[in-house]
Design goal:
This protein has 483 residues and is α/β, with parallel strands linked by helices. It contains 12 helices and 16 strands.
Length: 483
């Protein structure tokens, strides 16, 4: 409770000093009112993150089996990014990159909890500056609902210590693997969900509770600028949803994919369950968009929808949903299927409806984008570049990345990758670099390293010079049993 009270004392100070237009420290009452009016004009920001949703799992990217009408409507009325990348190919580091604006060569968290050198999980640190912290000093109320996954040690990585005024969800990874958890965190309190049993899947499905909390957060905070980070756990394993949600996918003649319960308490038929999970999320996103309209704040709210990494469900040897589209690989790969994400931005009367951009962007761009929207500059060094000019149609003023960088180290690692313009380089430890011309070979089937040694040398140089050392995430071979 002392921490909460202290933060409440600090908020007004940030509130008064967070604007670049403030020219004096001695603010009179009139200037204070003017500042408060400026805060009121700042756009709300809602960032919706799906979990393990593939690039091809949404209709606007070609999905023809799973129904996603509401997400597709965002695309129809907003802007689709065709070259947007995640922070990593698994959830923990990807979310850390999103929150801090630093790619995995510089981020504090570069792998999932079990994949550290010491075996002790690494969390986001007190020194990290998150999007929430940046927006709080610009006068925003901040909320995080869903899978945080950056506080395995339940210490300094906790959301309320990282700039969030409100939190409801999972601090750690393993509890987030189940949709009927026995407990859930609300702010710093761990609450029992009466009647829930993750093994028998009895009680309340957590997705619906997350949606309820998101609805409440918007209702309670819509009269002043807010930032909502809504990190759904759908459609991450385990595959389970209410039977009524599956009805639309039954009796369609689909082949049955038998799922075997283990750590993940899957429902029996994978295909109908996976599709129903995605469509359930889609419907609830549609309801949230209606809520914004009903509250009269839709025109002052930027909504972003994307996924934390590539899909895991669809069988690459026997694809049914074509979840990765034309890409090679999926979750845990640094080929396009593991990191190339669906991305749509919706902001009525600000973003031109029905537009697409080929601007190359990544998760580490969100923090500087949010800062520019809020009228503040990042207070820490970041790797990201604001894509706000692209959102507003000002392509001529859009800065571009020289290149993007990723690293990943689980069973098949270490792996590093870069994208520079239309060229992609991938380096497996102890193996020669692979390079691909994505403008002609988006599926990464034709390795041009031998034909283009000059380009291979250039990309290899970037791979070798894009990271700082991290004692817990060295680029050495690791072997652990995959969960």
């Amino acid at each position: 409770m002392k921490l909460i009270k202290l933060s409440q004392l600090v908020i007004p100070i940030f509130f008064l000093t967070g604007f670049v237009s403030c020219k004096t420290k001695q603010v009179d009452e009139n200037n204070k009112q003017t500042q408060e009016q400026k805060v009121a004009t700042k756009p709300n920001i809602i960032f919706i993150l799906a979990d393990d949703l593939g690039y091809g799992d949404v209709g606007f990217n070609g999905q023809d089996k799973i129904k996603t009408p509401n997400i597709d409507k965002l695309a129809t009325n907003g802007m689709v990014f065709t070259n947007h990348y995640t922070g990593s190919t698994v959830c923990g580091p990807s979310r850390a990159v999103l929150m801090t604006g630093k790619h995995t060569g510089h981020a504090t968290v570069r792998g999932n909890p079990r994949w550290t050198a010491s075996g002790t999980p690494v969390d986001i640190s007190a020194e990290d500056v998150t999007v929430a912290e940046e927006l709080k000093r610009a006068g925003y109320t901040t909320g995080m609902i869903g899978k945080w996954g950056l506080a395995e040690n339940l210490n300094e990585g906790l959301p309320f210590k990282q700039g969030f005024d409100y939190f409801y969800g999972f601090n750690q990874h393993s509890p987030a693997h189940h949709y009927y958890p026995k407990t859930i965190f609300e702010n710093e309190n761990e609450l029992i969900i009466e009647g829930n049993d993750p093994q028998t899947k009895e009680g309340q499905h957590i997705h619906y509770l997350m949606t309820e909390k998101a609805t409440n957060f918007i209702d309670e905070n819509h009269k002043k600028p807010f930032f909502l980070y809504l990190a759904y756990t759908i459609p991450h394993f385990e595959l389970t949803i209410l039977e009524e949600e599956k009805e639309q996918y039954k009796n369609l003649g689909w082949p049955k994919r038998q799922m075997t319960p283990g750590h993940y308490r899957h429902d029996e038929d994978g295909h109908t369950t996976y599709a129903a999970m995605v469509s359930t999320m889609d419907r609830d996103i549609g309801n949230l968009m209606k809520q914004l309209k009903d509250l009269g704040i839709a025109d002052n709210t930027l909504v972003i929808f994307t996924s934390d990494n590539g899909h895991e469900y669809d069988d690459l040897k026997n694809e049914f949903f074509n979840s990765n589209g034309d890409f090679q690989g999926h979750k845990r790969d640094l080929y396009e299927g593991g990191i190339h994400a669906p991305f749509v931005a919706y902001w009525p009367n600000k973003i031109k409806a029905g537009t697409k951009t080929e601007h190359i962007s990544a998760f580490w761009d969100f923090l500087p984008t949010a800062c520019e929207l809020a009228g503040v500059k990042p207070s820490d060094t970041v790797d990201g570049i604001s894509y706000l000019p692209t959102l507003l149609g000002n392509d001529d003023s859009q800065k571009k990345h020289n290149y993007l960088y990723w690293e990943f180290n689980e069973n098949q690692g270490p792996i590093q990758a870069v994208r520079k313009d239309h060229w992609k380089g991938i380096k497996f430890k102890e193996k020669p670099i692979e390079i691909y011309d994505l403008s002609k070979d988006i599926s990464e089937q034709n390795n041009l390293a031998e034909q283009r040694p000059d380009k291979a040398k250039e990309l290899l140089f970037l791979i070798n010079n894009s990271r700082t050392e991290h004692s817990e995430f060295p680029l050495v071979k690791k072997i652990l049993k995959r969960q």
